[in-house]
Amino acid sequence: MTAPLIELRDVTRRYDDGPPALRELSLTVRPGESVAILGPSGSGKSTLLNLIAGLDRPSTGTVTVDGVAVDKLGEAASARYRRARIGLVFQFFNLLDDLTVADNVMLPAQLAGMARAAAQRRATELLTVLGVDRHAAAYPGRLSGGERQRVAVARALMNRPALLLADEPTGALDTAAGVEVQRLLTELHADGQTIVLVTHDLALAENCATRTVQLRDGRVAADTTAPVR
Amino acid sequence: MSTLGRAVRAGAGRHRVQTVVITMVVLIAVTSAVLGGSLLVASRAPFDRAFGQQQGAHLTAQFGPAATVAQLTSSAGAAGISAAAGPFPTTQVSTLGPGGRPRPPMTVVGRSAPDGPVDQVTLTAGRWATAPGELVLAEDSRFRGPPVKIGTVWTVADPPGSPAVTVVGIARSVSRTADAWVTPEQVTAWTGERGPAGYQMLYRLTVADTAAQVEAARAAIAATVPAGALTGAVSWLVTRQDAVGQAALLVPFLIAFGVLGVVMAVLIIGNVIAGAVSTGTRRIGILKALGFTPAQVVRAYLGQALMPAVAGAVLGVVAGNLLTVPVLAQTNRLYGTSDNGVTLWVDALVAGGALVVVTLTAWAAAARAGRLRSVDAIAVGRTPRPGRGQWASRLTGRIPVPRPMSLGLAHPFARPLRSGGIVAAIAFGTAAVTFAVGLATSLSLIQEAEDLADVQVVPRMEAPGPGAGGPGREPMPNGPGPLTDPAGVVAAITAQAGTGGYVGQARTEVTVAGITGSLTTVALTGTDGARYYRMVSGSWLTGPGQIVVSTPFLTAAGKEVGDTVVLTDHGTDLTARIVGEVFNTDDKGMQILTDLATLRPAEPGLSPEIFLVSVRPGTDAATYASGLETALRSLGAAAVPVEHGTDELVLIIDTLTALLSVMLVVVAGLGVLNVVVLDTRERVHDLGVHKALGMTPRQTTTMVISSVLVTGLIGGAIGAAVGVALQRAVLGAMGGSAGFTLPASIVDVYSPTELLLFGLGGLVIAVGGALLPAGWAAGTRTVTALRTE
Ligand SMILES: Nc1ncnc2c1ncn2[C@@H]1O[C@H](COP(=O)(O)OP(=O)(O)O)[C@@H](O)[C@H]1O
Ligand SMILES: [Mg+2]
Question: Where are the transmembrane segments (chain B) (predicted)?
């Protein structure tokens, strides 16, 4: 068996008030898996994703990704960790309105120190693959929801991350656009991309994930690996 | 009120930085305005007040031995006299300081007490003279010698054979009635059976507003004594002219700072409130949806500005008065006044004015909030922002610098109006520093022009040896006479190691066709004349038949550099060409400088009374002087090192400059701080996105700091230029009002490097103001930032 890409061990995340968002949760994800995290609102899905992305730290327990002890990273190190290994896709796209589509996509590479010309080549390539290359010079405000989410995926893939994290990527899209994004993620997984996605969308989970993890009150309620299609 | 109040309080709490900035800006503006205002009031007529406090003498009259004491006492009854003091016996005394150095001869007045109906002299140290051998020295701010300590013992050189005197007190007479005071008995002891050299009478007049009124009183007094008995009279108007001339220097200075301070406060408070309205747009929408009227909303914002403004104004009044006290202590010493500096009407005016300005500024800035439609306001933040400044992002994205930097560089263009305000604040801050440093430099150059020499060579005033002068020699009425052996002195100076250069000066009076009255002419010999004067135009003397003069002379004579004038010296007409214009305030700018040889045909016997010597760099003036002293002893001359003491007025101006420019720079920095905080708050979500994409804290700091580089550079460049223009305008106005053209060497004080540094000062202000919020931005938790919508 291959070494796990993600390993959470006995992770608890407690906020100032209320019950813990995650309780002694353990989870292992192997390279090449596509995991859908399901669960009711407030069950801790986003918290789990944030911990894996190094955006947040567990109260207790450990988070290891690609050999990196994510829970031990300082601010700068965690930024570099995200830059190198993580691609993030959000429900509300989180594109920067005052940058063009191309500039948005290039940004992670440029933050990592890649020269503009090289970043531009890679961005054009990605935008072409994702079918939004004709919008490269436009500003995100002019794009449809589906197009924006494809730009966001392009931006997430810019630094060839080992892991793609998506938090309700279809949550803000209409059905047609949702299907588009679903197809895109499925293709990426088929190409070997490891994906962890949070969703309410059962169709997305079914079509795109090889494994579904059900959360309830910050605990894993079910963990099912789908039969190979 | 309760709902409104709570809404306002909540608003103020939420905008802690804005509250702090408003408080600080008002605090600083009020502090400097109170300081400036109090000083302005205190310096406006410090002489008049001091003169009033001391019951100053409108007329100080000197009588020769021809008048009897009884006649003088009854002169107090002359027309126009309201009070009189005296007669006090007077005489001239020459003393030797420590080491046998001759001190300038003094006019000594015998007075048994410092008080009386006229000229109530203020003792600033020690006590009054009560016995022979005791002396009270007049403190003269313009005397630049080393301070004299109480208890100092001086040998009396003239009258010869007198016992030494001890300085028991230092006192100040605004009317400048004496160089020193002793008991009347001491004067009698000095003058012996000859009787006193004369008597002094001090008069207060019923009216003394014009020279004609003072002159009328003088004539009335002269009529009460035998003809010729009134040998001299000094009007208080002349003394005042001398004293007020200096204080007037402070006025343009303080006005310039006051204007800068007010404009900056308006800019920054306007910016803060406009910023509060802009970040609070959604809040405004919600308040209005809850039923707030536009007027209530505007009032809520006014409250948000006024609460900290009131706090700032109160603290500022306190701080301003606290600062005024030590500065005024200096002016008090300068003018002999006793002011604590607390001027209640200035405090009230400044604090009230500040609150009015804040109210008007906040009103103007908050008016937008009142006009906002509720629906639009609530919609803000829900829809993507319109792409303001996108062109700038596009442009800076191409600059080959790290991406965080190019991202930051584009920020100011997204909010051009706000950035414009901050450019102006930075420009004012930079202008203030540039102006202040330049003006202070020029003023100290003007002061410095007066004592460029390191060592003076003057006639020795020791008791003459047997046969040299004989007993009964008259005290010298007009200071030192000529040096007995100028050629020997020149030889001694030339032979002395460390001599840089020297110039000999002889003074005489000449008349010039077209100018009434006689003019002092300084006849120069030596190698180093040009060193002691700053040229305005033309060139320095190169030989006989040439003169160099100041602007007032040229104005009065209607001449220009290059013209020829006829000097009448002791009845002989001498033709001389004006070769240059210098900045020389001596004799109110009417002094003529020429080579000694020019005057030789008229005055063959004219020879130097004093030599000014400059030493080579690295030579200690005191050591040099004592070496030269040894060589000069046999020539009847003495070498005295010149004390380059800092003038007190220059000290005050320097203190104020430092204080006020630091304050304005802090205000500018706070303005930047506020804008960067607003910007960061508005961009907090984007900041979260950046961090999620892998922006490190250091890159975040770089981005935020880069966002003020452009504003800082532009503000700095504008500010440095404005500062230079202001310095020139103020100096020009100051010189012009005194009738002088200032030489370029005094006006052009900025080197290109300094200008560059001042320009970059804007950058320093900008970065300084951005550092704190940049740190906050770098420390923002990504998850929190991303949740903000
Ligand atoms: N920053 C936070 N501060 C306080 N509580 C939080 C924070 N983030 C999430 N929570 C709480 O943690 C729980 C899990 O939240 P989240 O992981 O966002 O749930 P999900 O994404 O499954 O809807 C919720 O009860 C939520 O209110
Ligand atoms: Mg969630």
Answer: 20-42, 219-238, 250-277, 298-322, 342-366, 422-446, 658-680, 701-726, 755-778
Tell me which residue range forms the domain holding B698: 382-451+646-789
Q: How many CB atoms lie within 10 A of CB B487?
A: 10
Whether B727 and B680 share a structural domain: yes
The verdict on B359 and B396 lying in the same domain is no
Asked if residue B392 and residue B313 are part of one domain, the reply reads: no
Using the atom order of ligand 1, give the atom closest to the CA of residue B784: 1
Rounded mean pLDDT, B591-611: 86
Q: How far is CA A224 from the centre of its chain?
A: 20
On whether residue B241 sits in a domain, the answer given is no
* Residue A49 placed within a domain: yes
Asked if A48 and A26 count as a contact pair (C-beta separation under 8 A), the reply is no
- Mutation pick for ligand 1 pocket among A11, A12, A25, A46 (CB with most ligand atoms within 8 Å): A46
User: Is residue B42 located within the same domain as residue B111?
Assistant: no
CA distance B407 to B392: 9
The predicted pLDDT at position A188 comes to: 93
3-state DSSP call for residue B788? coil
Pocket of ligand 1 (CB under 6 A): A 15, 18, 21, 39, 41-47; B 783
Look at chain B and count its residues: 789
CA A1 to chain B, closest CA, distance in angstroms equals 31
> Distance from the CA of A15 to the center of ligand 1, in angstroms?
8
Residues B374 and B393 in one domain: no
Q: What is the pLDDT of residues B665-700, one digit of tens each?
A: 888 888 888 888 888 888 888 899 999 999 999 999
Question: Do residues B48 and B97 share a domain?
Answer: no
Q: Are B479 and B613 in contact (CB under 8 A)?
A: no
Chain B: closest CA distance from residue A223 (Å): 27
Burial letters B428-438, b for 16+ CB under 10 A, else e: bbbbbbbbbbb
Q: Are strands A68-69 and A86-89 parallel, antiparallel or unpaired?
A: unpaired
Q: What is the pLDDT of residue B715?
A: 95
Residue A1 inside a domain? The answer is no
Please give the pLDDT value at position B636: 78
Q: What does R_g of chain A's alpha carbons equal in angstroms?
A: 17
- A109-120: pLDDT as tens digits: 999 999 999 999
Q: How confident is the model at residue B464 (pLDDT cuts 50, 70, 90)?
A: very low
The pLDDT value recorded for residue B684 is 86
The complex's ipTM works out to 0.91
Separation of B783 CA from ligand 1 center, angstroms?
Answer: 11
Residue A6, beta-bridge partner list = A29, A65
B632 lies in the same domain as B704: no
Kindly determine whether residue B384 and residue A94, on different chains, have CB atoms separated by under 8 Å. Answer: no
By mean pLDDT, which of B148-157, B303-312, B454-463 is the weakest?
A: B454-463
Residue B246 resides in a domain: no
Average pLDDT over residues B267-275: 80
Judgement on whether residues B361 and B394 belong to the same structural domain of the protein? no
Helices (DSSP H) in B206-249: which residue ranges?
211-222, 236-247
Q: How many domains does chain A have?
A: 1
Instruction: Let me know if residue A20 belongs to a domain.
Output: yes
Dist. CA A44 → ligand 1 center (Å): 6
Residue ranges making up the domain that contains A92:
6-96+160-225
Residues of B in contact with A88 (CB under 8 A): 692-693
Query: Residue B570: exposed, middle, or buried by beta-carbon count in 10 A (0-12, 13-18, 19+)?
Result: exposed
3 state SS of A150? helix
Number of domains comprising chain B = 4
Whether B382 shows a pLDDT value over 60: the answer reads no
Inside any domain, residue A134:
no
Residue nearest to atom 11 of ligand 1 (CA): A21
Tell me if B411 sits within 8 A of B676, measured CB to CB: no
B398 CB neighbours in chain A (<8 A) are 116
Give the CATH number, domain containing residue A69: 3.40.50.300
Final residue before a domain boundary, out of B641, B667, B701:
B641
Question: Which of A41, A47, A56, A196 gets mutated to test ligand 1 (max ligand atoms within 8 A of its CB)?
Answer: A47
Q: Which of B641, B658, B691 is the last residue of a domain?
A: B641
Q: Which has the higher per-residue pLDDT, B264 or A59?
A: A59
Q: Which atom of ligand 1 is nearest to the CA of A13?
A: 12
